[in-house]
Write a structure and sequence with these properties.
- The protein has 177 residues and is an all-alpha fold.
- Helices cover 89% and strands 0% of the residues.
- The longest helix is centred in the C-terminal third of the chain and has 38 residues.
Length: 177
Amino acid sequence: MNLVPALIHLFAPWQSVYSNSKPVATLVTATHLMALLFGGGFAVAADRATLRALGSEPADRRRALADLQAVHRPVLIALSVLFVSGAAQATADVETFAKSPAFLVKLALVGLLLANGFILMRTEHALRALDSTAGVATESGANRETALWRRLRTTAWLSLGLWASTVVAGTVLVNAA
């Protein structure tokens, strides 16, 4: 049994609702774009603040870490909404999305965003833990802190690139479908 025809049959009622109702299609698309705007906006702002904090004084870096911690939840919520609304769009036209390389690229980029976000969050937690234990007072603590800030810089740059690439992939997907 081929999976695509089975999925087309499974989602036929949703495809009918989505295709025959401009308000439903508009709501799903607007939800998808708003999640991209807010999730990506918060993430890009946090990435910018992280990159600016790299050369700052320790107190400024601690504030940047606290701000970074506060942004994880809204970005994850936005990514979840982005995923659900994207799934709603994809299941409304399984045949088109199933054969679209741009769709697979966009899915891979979202997966990379999630993985990068996980690494970023773990790095931020490690930096805060190191700071709270005064581990920087030793040479090995200072070396660990430097390595963690470098990793945080890398994840911030990757995040910026991945968010931008996701927008490009989404644009290609819309125009190629």
